[in-house]
């Protein structure tokens, strides 16, 4: 939390001192300009190119909370935030590229709000020690620990165990800690929406923003007929169930499409590879493979290569679709290893959740329980935009 | 079987087959194969045989090392993590421009080094094998996490490495990983059977006190067993990095359990002094055939874990039954105590 | 010097030094973090460690008798699932508890029956049942929505308090004390030690191992079932994979506490110390803001350091002490590094 920790943080002291002065009534535009100017003048790694999009994006105001440019409003918010430090914890299920991107996006937004309104952040990331999709118990322990240390807000990704987390959130709230969950599957729990304990759940609808999108893409690409293989996550995963529902709904539109096999790839690349290798032996003429995440889809792509089959070239070959929205996935699409992938928009997940924290903790607003971000089916044609957005998130203007 | 006279009757021959080591496991493999080939004709095909062979490689290499360690009376829980870390070593070094062969040698050396650390902690500090290798399991995995910072190592593949990883096959079905696995099996088999080190391993594992009295340096043998296990994990890591073309921080998670299971199915025992290289092959084959058959036969993924467990259970029950039958045939009185340790000790 | 000798004789008791290391760790953490001794934190620490403590206590029985039970994690999951299912269907707390305990005991009976009745290796039997029953939980959770019951009494099992003490901690404490007393004071307990130290001798002394071993596995299963009931009550929902990995933590806890894998050595309280050691270490690291990437590395090194320290202290103590404790009823110690005495294998 030391501001001088990294070179990226260098322009920071100046900027925050300035925003202190800004209480006297400098216009907002001046702030954005000066912080960009400052970073431009600072020698070292922090090139202006990294900082300018930050201000530009805050100007775009993805979800409110950043500067309006209307000084009366901005000053009032600034008065409210003056001297406030939000103790924020981030508890991803495990360390992975996915969470690195989300964290970077969170940093970007935290920095934007800090420069705009002077709010300070005391940030800490904690993950369960062992990598596992079943580390819920360890995660609950971390939430309890952070709550007992009087954190204001926690951003939680529990990797799927939705119902289990409710008690942990309830206990944390008793200690005054608000929990915001990301990348979860609330769409499978609408039946008890009135009992949702979290402040907000930022993510996307796995049914219709992931599973359905892929089904529709495969249907259109194969012109409505062909055979499909599913390389799926472990049975019982809520993500898997939700995406299956959406995928089935899309396939219902294309009666000519038939799912011939479904294998368990355990969300891992090497398992995805071996399962696909086996299934391709039985169904060598398959037209499309849907890997439920990018890693499994890439494993499937290698199995397709190893068997000497051709990837989709726009006319023929095997269509391979993944999902995740990772920079490495974007590269795989660019290199032609994946035909397509669903970008679930890690960047906006990170930004939106920080906005929700800001609104809820500082302004006391009621934030939406369900906060969907836009997702996008990425192919070679449109890979540039999401790729650039992710790259930006991975170079935060300040690391916390 | 070889000791049977040429004029043995069919019944004698049959009995010899039924009571030969691993016959229970082998018969379960055969049953699984029959089931799968009824479900789909492609199960018995060259392509699918190749699938199974190439899927066996990594677990087999670890199971060979595990067999050595188990014979010496130890256990190595760290092999999965060490394999992952060695894959990381080769990937990162190649990203940093180190020539492929050097990177691979360094990765294998790293594996052997980590194995040596295991062995030293066990023999010098006197920690139980289980605890020392469990600690290494955590440390090696943690180091890979720290090193990758959660983002996989990518873009290290070269044309030659595609061949090493078995993704390109200039020699038809004989891929580099399969050749390496065959060689490793042969070397381990010869070492166990014909070298002093092999004899010392069995001696230390079945009766360390007796081995010590007969002049064997028990700590040295045990240390070397762990070095072998680490080295084979390093080799497996180098090959695996070539197959996955990306080294994620969780690469190799859970492989230690497969390796131990394969070694034990193949006849090694936790009590030490028992195990063969061919047993490791049979054990690995059981696991690989089961997984492959379920995919080919289209068993619902929800049920696959249950079926795997049942097959495992069936194979050890049949194996045990065959052992009991053998001991009856050879007129050895059955142990009144039906305990594994008692029945399996030499 | 008498004090020195007395200290040495205390330190020579296995487990005492690990307990001291544990206490030192608590002092260190409470000095470094103001939150550590906070009532909320201690409550969390104890409630969260109950599951590991229970499983480790059950595991010590199995390890002392000379076996191993890898299925306890999956037993925990299945029992939790069945308990919650019964609660949803009947809303009867006694019935739900009975189902949870009975399912655990039944799996224990299956394990024990195969191990003792057929003499199959316990490692592979319990690995197979681990696979079967964690797969069974997968199947169960896809068939039924195991999320929540409206019953307050069920929730209070693990979320309530008695005299200000969290009820799961109280339940665990009672069970652990009972288990320790049974092991130390009853003929049943003595038979367990005897069987673990030397099964043949135990058999000749009239211990019925075919009955004793299943009893121990049933006990271990039932305790895992109890842990499952508490976990189901605490989480109020059951997912696939619940409990996976607990077996390794429980065995590690027992071994860290000084329970030997070769059998005949250890006690319940030592396993409990080991479990609390692991739980406190992880809690403390979180409070000290150690980056979680370092967790596995630090845990591994701490375990090695703690046990190496306790071994060395014991060796020193043994050198200082004038009259040694009666030697273990096996053979003269083969080598300090060898925790498997040949007698136990024979």
Characterization of this structure:
The complex is a heterotrimer of chains A (400), B (346) and C (346). Chain A has helices spanning 12-21, 28-41, 48-60, 71-81, 97-117, 136-148, 162-174, 207-221, 238-251, 269-282, 294-306, 327-334, 346-362, 384-393; strands at residues 85-91, 120-125, 153-156, 178-182, 200-203, 225-232, 256-264, 288-291, 319-324, 340-343, 370-372, 376-378. Chain A is of the alpha/beta class and 400 residues long. In chain A, the strands form two sheets. Chain A has a six-stranded parallel beta sheet, sandwiched between helices. In chain A, strands 7-6-8-9-10-12 form a six-stranded mixed beta sheet, sandwiched between helices. In chain A, helix 5 (97-117) packs across helix 13, helix 8 packs across helix 9 and helix 10 crosses helix 11 (294-306). Residues 1-65 of chain A have low confidence and may be disordered. Chain B has a domain at 46-281. In chain B, 72% of the residues lie in helices and 0% in strands. Chain C has a two-stranded antiparallel sheet. In chain C, helix 1 (2-11) packs across helix 14. The longest helix of chain C is centred in the middle third of the chain and has 27 residues, at 209-235. The N and C termini of chain C lie far apart (42 Å).
Gist of the model:
The complex is a heterotrimer of chains A (400), B (346) and C (346). With 400 residues, chain A is of the alpha/beta class.
Please render the helix and strand layout as text:
The complex is a heterotrimer of chains A (400), B (346) and C (346).
Chain A: H1 12-21, H2 28-41, H3 48-60, H4 71-81, E1 85-91, H5 97-117, E2 120-125, H6 136-148, E3 153-156, H7 162-174, E4 178-182, E5 200-203, H8 207-221, E6 225-232, H9 238-251, E7 256-264, H10 269-282, E8 288-291, H11 294-306, E9 319-324, H12 327-334, E10 340-343, H13 346-362, E11 370-372, E12 376-378, H14 384-393
Parallel strand pairs in A: 1-2, 1-3, 3-4, 4-5, 5-11, 6-7, 6-8, 8-9, 9-10
Antiparallel strand pairs in A: 10-12
Helix pairs in contact in A: 1-2, 1-5, 2-3, 5-13, 6-7, 8-9, 10-11
Chain B: H1 10-19, H2 23-39, H3 46-71, H4 79-95, H5 100-123, H6 129-148, H7 159-164, H8 176-194, H9 196-206, H10 208-213, H11 218-244, H12 255-265, H13 277-297, H14 301-329, H15 340-344
Chain C: H1 2-11, H2 16-32, H3 39-64, H4 72-90, H5 93-118, H6 122-143, H7 152-159, E1 161-162, E2 165-166, H8 167-185, H9 187-197, H10 199-204, H11 209-235, H12 246-257, H13 268-287, H14 295-320, H15 342-345
Antiparallel strand pairs in C: 1-2
């Amino acid at each position: 939390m030391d501001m001088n920790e990294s070179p990226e943080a260098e322009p920071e002291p100046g900027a925050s001192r300035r925003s202190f002065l800004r209480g006297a009534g400098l216009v907002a535009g001046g702030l954005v300009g000066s912080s960009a100017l400052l970073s431009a003048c600072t020698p070292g790694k922090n090139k202006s190119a990294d900082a300018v999009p930050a201000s530009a994006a805050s100007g775009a105001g993805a979800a409110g909370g950043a500067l309006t440019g209307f000084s009366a409003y901005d000053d009032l918010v600034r008065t409210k935030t003056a001297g406030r430090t939000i103790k924020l914890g981030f508890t991803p299920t495990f360390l992975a590229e996915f969470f690195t991107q989300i964290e970077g996006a969170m940093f970007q937004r935290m920095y934007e709000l800090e420069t705009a309104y002077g709010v300070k952040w005391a940030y800490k990331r904690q993950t369960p020690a062992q990598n596992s999709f079943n580390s819920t118990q360890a995660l609950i322990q971390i939430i309890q620990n952070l709550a007992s240390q009087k954190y204001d807000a926690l951003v939680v990704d529990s990797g799927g165990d939705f119902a289990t987390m409710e008690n942990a959130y309830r206990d944390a709230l008793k200690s005054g800690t608000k929990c915001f969950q990301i990348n979860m599957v609330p769409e499978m729990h609408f039946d008890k929406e009135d009992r949702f304990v979290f402040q907000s759940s930022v993510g996307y609808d796995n049914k219709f923003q992931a599973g359905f999108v892929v089904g529709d893409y495969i249907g259109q690409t194969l012109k409505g007929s062909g055979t499909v293989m599913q390389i799926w996550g472990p049975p019982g995963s809520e993500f898997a169930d939700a995406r299956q529902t959406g995928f089935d709904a899309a396939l219902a539109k294309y009666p000519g499409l038939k799912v011939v096999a479904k294998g368990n790839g355990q969300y891992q690349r090497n398992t995805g590879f071996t399962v696909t290798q086996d299934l391709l032996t039985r169904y060598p003429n398959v037209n499309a493979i849907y890997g439920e995440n990018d890693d499994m889809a890439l494993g499937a792509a290698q199995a397709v290569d190893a068997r000497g089959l051709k990837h989709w070239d726009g006319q023929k070959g095997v269509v391979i679709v993944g999902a995740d929205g990772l920079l490495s996935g974007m590269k795989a699409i660019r290199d032609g290893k994946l035909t397509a992938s669903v970008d679930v928009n890690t960047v906006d997940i990170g930004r939106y959740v920080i906005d929700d924290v800001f609104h809820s903790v500082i302004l006391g607003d009621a934030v939406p329980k369900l906060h969907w971000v836009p997702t996008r089916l990425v192919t070679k044609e449109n890979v540039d935009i999401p790729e650039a957005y992710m790259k930006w998130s991975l170079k935060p203007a300040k690391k916390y | 079987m070889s000791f049977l006279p040429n004029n043995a009757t069919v019944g004698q021959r049959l009995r010899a087959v039924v009571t030969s080591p691993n016959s229970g496991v082998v018969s379960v493999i055969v049953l699984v194969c029959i089931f799968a080939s009824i479900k789909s004709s492609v199960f018995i095909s060259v392509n699918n045989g190749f699938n199974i062979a190439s899927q066996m490689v990594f677990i087999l290499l670890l199971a060979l090392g595990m067999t050595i360690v188990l014979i010496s009376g130890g256990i190595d829980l760290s092999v999965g993590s060490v394999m992952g870390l060695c894959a990381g070593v080769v990937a990162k070094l190649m990203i940093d421009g180190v020539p492929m062969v050097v990177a691979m040698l360094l990765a294998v050396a790293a594996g052997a080094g980590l194995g040596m650390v295991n062995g030293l902690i066990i023999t010098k500090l006197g920690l139980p094998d289980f605890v020392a290798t469990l600690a290494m399991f955590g440390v090696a995995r943690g180091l890979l996490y720290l090193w990758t910072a959660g983002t996989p190592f990518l873009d290290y593949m070269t044309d030659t490495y595609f061949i090493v990883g078995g993704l390109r096959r200039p020699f038809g079905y004989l891929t580099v990983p399969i050749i390496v696995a065959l060689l490793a099996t042969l070397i381990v088999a010869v070492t166990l059977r014909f070298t002093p080190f092999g004899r010392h391993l069995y001696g230390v594992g079945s009766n360390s006190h007796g081995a010590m009295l007969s002049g064997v340096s028990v700590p040295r043998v045990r240390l070397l067993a762990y070095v072998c296990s680490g080295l084979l994990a390093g080799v497996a890591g180098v090959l695996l990095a070539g197959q996955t073309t990306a080294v994620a921080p969780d690469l190799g998670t859970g492989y230690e359990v497969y390796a131990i299971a394969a070694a034990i199915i193949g006849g090694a025992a936790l009590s030490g002094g028992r195990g063969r290289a061919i047993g490791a092959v049979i054990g690995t084959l059981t696991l690989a055939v089961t997984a492959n058959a379920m995919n080919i036969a289209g068993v619902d993924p929800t049920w696959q874990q249950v079926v795997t467990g049942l097959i495992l259970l069936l194979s050890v029950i049949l194996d045990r039954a065959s052992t009991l039958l053998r001991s009856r045939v050879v007129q050895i009185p059955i142990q009144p105590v039906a305990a594994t340790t008692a029945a399996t000790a030499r | 010097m008498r004090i020195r000798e007395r200290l040495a004789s205390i330190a020579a008791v296995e487990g005492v030094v690990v307990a001291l290391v544990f206490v030192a760790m608590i002092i260190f953490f409470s000095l470094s973090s103001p939150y550590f001794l906070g009532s909320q934190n201690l409550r969390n620490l104890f409630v969260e460690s109950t599951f590991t403590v229970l499983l480790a206590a059950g595991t010590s029985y199995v390890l002392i008798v000379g076996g191993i039970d890898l299925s306890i994690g999956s037993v925990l999951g299945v029992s939790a699932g069945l308990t919650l299912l019964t609660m949803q269907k009947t809303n009867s707390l006694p019935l739900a508890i009975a189902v949870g305990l009975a399912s655990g005991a039944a799996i224990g009976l299956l394990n024990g029956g195969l191990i003792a009745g057929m003499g199959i290796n316990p490692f592979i039997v319990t690995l197979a049942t681990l696979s079967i029953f964690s797969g069974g939980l997968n199947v169960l959770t896809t068939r039924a929505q195991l999320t929540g019951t409206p019953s307050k009494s069920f929730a209070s099992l693990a979320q309530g308090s008695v005299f200000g003490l969290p009820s799961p901690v109280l339940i665990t404490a009672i069970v652990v004390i009972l288990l320790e007393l049974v092991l130390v004071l009853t003929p049943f307990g003595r038979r367990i030690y005897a069987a673990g130290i030397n099964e043949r001798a135990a058999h000749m002394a009239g211990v019925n191992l075919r009955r004793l071993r299943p009893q121990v596995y049933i006990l271990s299963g039932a305790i895992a079932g109890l842990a499952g009931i508490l976990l189901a009550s605490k989480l109020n929902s059951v997912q696939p994979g619940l409990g996976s990995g607990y077996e390794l933590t429980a065995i590690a806890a027992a071994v860290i506490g000084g329970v030997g894998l070769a059998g005949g050595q250890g006690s319940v309280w030592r396993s409990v110390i080991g479990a609390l050691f692991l739980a406190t270490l992880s809690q403390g690291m979180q409070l000290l803001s150690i980056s979680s990437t370092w967790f596995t590395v630090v845990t591994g090194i701490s375990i090695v350091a703690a046990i190496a320290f306790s071994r060395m202290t014991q060796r020193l103590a043994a050198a200082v002490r004038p009259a040694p404790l009666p030697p273990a009823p096996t053979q003269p110690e083969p080598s300090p590094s060898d925790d498997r005495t040949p007698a136990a294998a024979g």
